Amino acid sequence: MTQVNNDQIRQNVRIRYEEVALQNEQTTSCCSPNKLGSESPAAISAKMGYSSEELNAVPDGANLGLGCGNPQAIAGLQPGETVLDLGSGGGFDCFLAARQVGTTGKVIGVDMTPAMISKARQNAENASVSNVEFRLGEIEHLPVADQTVDVIISNCVINLSPNKVQVFHDAFRVLRSSGRLAISDIVTTAELPEPIKNDLKDLYTGCISGASSISELTQMLEQNGFVDIQIEPKEESKSFIRDWVPGGNIDDYIVSAVIQAVKP
Fold it and tell me: Could you tell me what percent of the chain has a pLDDT over 90?
């Protein structure tokens, strides 16, 4: 894929999520090019594995109904840790992580969409959350210093990157030794049909066309130095994935997965 195509993909993604950030009522899943009717963000997130307690714990406006899983469930966050969220959106996962790491810990959210950063910062201010910081930047080139992060989380965002190898390269850079990845994302379970692969707008920004296979992701992680790699598909996610493209049988090709790895 050429640099021009990469830049166009990033621009398509940025435009899409700017629209999401500016909406008063979110009635679409990030991972869907189609409307999901009147489902609330809370109802969408409950399907992804978030508890009622988690859904009620975040500031109003932080949960935009984005994602394809719950990275909090696998992150094993501890008090005092520094957490980095790749593609932090309105700050939903950041605010949940902030509760777990406590006042001695810190959470950094990175997003390339200015409207999302503004929204997340306003959410933090409204809720008087002081151990969360939101930074504008691309996940391929993180605005984070070397070896300063204990845990990287992400929720259905890395599939949106046109250069996933660089994402994992920079993730490795910012992690401390023994730092870990705890990611929910989309993986392919079968070869995507050409019309889906070639849709670099709706289906790419809808977390479908940019998905990689488990073997491809494993290779990317290995070549960037990660060990203890575990990628676990979640078959139950097909129950909501099939709604992303009604009638398109998209669940025959993709599934949500838990992705974990460690920096030696």
Answer: 75
Strand pairing class (254-262; 175-188): antiparallel
What is the per-residue pLDDT across 25-51, written as a single tens digit (0 to 9) for each? 444 455 654 444 557 888 989 989 899
Instruction: Please tell me the distance from the alpha carbon of residue 110 to that of residue 91, in angstroms, as a whole number.
Output: 9
| 48-56, long-range: CB < 8 A, 24+ apart | 48/184, 48/240, 48/256, 49/73, 54/96
Cα 147 to Cα 84, 131, 176, 230, 263: the distances in Å are: 12, 19, 4, 22, 10
Which ranges constitute the DSSP H helices of 23-157?
A: 41-47, 52-57, 72-75, 92-101, 114-126
* Verdict on whether the full-model pTM lies above 0.90: yes
Which domains can be identified in the chain, with CATH numbers? 3-262 (3.40.50.150)
Q: How many CA atoms are closer than 13 Å to the CA of 102, on its beta-carbon side?
A: 6
